[in-house]
Structure formats: C-alpha cells, structure tokens
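Can't attach files on this board, so I'm pasting raw text. These are the components:
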Amino acid sequence: MSDRKEKIWSDRTWRFQHDQRAVSTALSYTITLTITAVLISGLLVSGTQFLESEQKRAINSELDVLGNRVAADLAAADRLVQAGNESGNVTLTLSEAIPQTVAGAPYRMNITREGNGPYNVTIELFTTDPSVTVTVGIKTTTPVANTTIVGGPFVIEYDESTDELEVADD
Amino acid sequence: MADVGRPVGTTDGQVSDRDRGQLILVGGLALAVTFVALALVLNTAIYTENLATRGSDLAGGAAAIEFTDAAVDGIGGAIEPINHNHNDSHETLASNLTTAVDDWSTIAGQHAAFSGRSANVSVAAITNGTRIEQTNRSREFTNASKDATDWTLVEDVEHTREFRMNVSDDKLETDGPDAFNVTVTDGTTTWWFNVTEDAVFIDNGTITECSTTGSSAWINVTAGQVNGTECSAMRFAEGISTPYRIEFKNGNNAEGTYTLIVDNSSLAPSPTGDYETSGGSPFAEHAIYSTTIRVTVVTDQLRYASNRTVAPGEPDE
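---
Top answer:
Structure tokens for the assembled complex are below.
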C-alpha cells in the first residue's frame, strides 16, 4: 500500500515539477488578445495622425504655391494697367486655371489691400477641414478690390471707372 | 507568450490554425489602407509642385507690353515719312497714316500669331499740326521776305516736338544782347535761349550755359541736347502754360537749318506772310502732330487693349 501511495505522490510531484502552465488557458488568451489589440490600435492611431500631419503639410505647401501664382498674376495685371494708363482706356481680362482642391480639401481666398499709393495686397488662402491658413503679400500700384473667392480658376479684370483690379471666380 | 493554439490532436474546436492572428491581420489591413491614403494625399501635391517650377509670367503679360511698345515705335517711325511725302492736306495725311497702321497691324499680327497671340493695332485719333522747317543751310533765321529779324514763328501752340536746329558759327555773335534768341511765351511768362559762338545760354529762372565746340552747333531743343551731349537745363518751354507762341529774335545773327512740329493745325493751310508758300525756306507744311493708337493683344489667358499716344520727339515730362 505504501508503494501505491509513493507512486501517486511521485506522480503528482513529477507533474507539478514539469507543469508549464502558469494560469488557465482562458486568462492567457485574454491577456494576449488585449496586448495585441492595444498594440494594433496604437499603430493605427499613430498611422492616422501621421496621415493627418502629412496632409496638413501638403496642403500648406500647395496653398503657398497657389498663393504665389495668384500674386504673380496680380503683379502682371498691375504692370499691364500701369503701362497703358497714360493714355487711358485700358481693358484687361487675365484668367488663370488653378486646381479647385488642395490634397482633397477645397479652399477659399481672401484678398485685401491697405495703404495709399503703392498698395499692400494680402492674399490669404485657407482650408477649413483640416484648418490650414497661408498668407502671401505683394505690393501693387493699382488698387485691388477687397474680395473673397472660392478656390479654383479665377479671372482678374480691370475696372476703369473705379481704377481697381477685381479678382473673381471663373 | 501563452499558447493560444490547440495542441495537435485535441478536439477542442475553439481555436483553429486558420483563425490564428485575426487581430493582426485586420490591423495590418487598416494600416495598409492608411498608407495608400497617404500616397494619394502626397500625389496631389505633385501637380502643384510642378506649377511652382514654372516662370511667373504664364499669362504672357510681358509679351503684351512688348508688343504694345513695338507698335508705338513702329507707328512713330511711319509718321515721319508720311509727314514728308504725303502732306498735301490733313486729309491726305490721315488716310495715309490709317493705311500705314493697317499694314503694320497685319504684318505684326501675323508675327504674333506664330507665338499664339492675336494682336491688332488701329488708329483711334489723330492730332493735326504743322511742320515748320528751313532747309537752306546758308540762310539766316529771318522770315521769308527777310525784312524782319524778330518774328513770330507760330502762335496758339499747346505742344511742340522734334524741335532741332543746326547753327553754323558764321553769323553768331560772341555774346551780348544781340545774340540770336528763341523765345517761348504765354503772354505773362517767358522761356528763352540764346545761341552764341561758344555756348548756348538758357533762361529757366537762372541763366545756364551749355558750351558748344566746333564750327556748328547741333541743338536738339526738345530732347535737351547740344552737340550730342545732354544739356540738362534745356527743358523746352519749362514753366510756360499753354497756349504759347514761339518767336525768333535777332534772326540775322544765326545761319543754318531748323525744324519743328507743332500741334497748331491752322498755320499750314493758311501760312502767315513770314513763310514761303511755294518752295524755299522757311515753310510751314501740313503735318501729323501725334496719333493715338489702340493696341489689342489676345492670348488664351489674357485679353488686353490700351490706347497709346505716338508723338516721336516730344519732350519728356
């Protein structure tokens, strides 16, 4: 009888010594899933944030380029008006096709001027979602009418009665 | 890590090999979609970056200004031969000028068409005038009948251009009140200059001297040049209000040629007694004083039209 007892005891001891399971299967399963879920969701969140920041940078640089394009066209229109202004009777229509969206987001432009004599014209381009604003400044001799237009192809016209350059949507 | 798979041989059925790692699979798929969206966003910036590399004058504004300036120069060059060769009457001059401008516009328009521009020049207005000239080099600066040394060239003038004279040293005084004098007056204020053997004296408030060397003096009055060098005090009719008249004084003390074009259009049809009517010097002929042209340039992005005044040799403001 003591032989059988010894055998049971050594069997248990052996199994205890060689048991590699720390906890139950269900708990280890849960822990693994939780860790994996946290890691994966962390990766996804940071990936989405990276995408958003890259989109903002792309929008910023695109708005900068488009703003400078608008400024260059305003300067060209200003030169054309000034060249013909001595004898008067200038008619001018300058159109430019620029993209309607930047990195998938539509944008708008605020054009304001201040000063007397050489005017300081500020072109402010902004998107609302994500919200990015870029400002480009230029000096002109002909006054530019204050206006807000939707981004996209635009037209610069010279109004002789008010001696103003007007930027409008095309 | 704990073993989430079932050992081979058990019949648990809860987790199979095919279901392993679903979370990682879905997460990886979502991340891949994010990267594709990133690529799309960055791709949209390619066109704009290309725009940034182009020049700032895509609309062709500089070319339009160049064409307009070329038109002013070209038509200005056409006015002088017309004034010399077709000056029977103001109507003849006008019709010749219109024809010349139309011809110029056709040819220049064809050239512009090569560059993708449509360009046109037309005459908007013509200002008639009179060309007063003495071409006989050995004649004094007196009137036609030689009985007046002080005489009025022309009255009721608003603008003068191309006023040039070539005076030889022979009859010039060395200085003093008898020197040959050109006076411009509006009735109250006077502007004048004297020509003596060594210098030209201009009165623009103070008396300024521009020296002349050599046996003759080339004076370009409207351009402000004496013998090819700039004489900054020579600003024609400075401070004189319009209309004014131009007079010569002591015309017997100068010898040579002169020419000027004024915008008084009534002198040529009925010249005063001081002018020769049939050849000889000095004479007053019909002339075009200036013309206003309308230049139009059209490209795919630009439509530009402006008026320009063509009056070659007019003094700068």
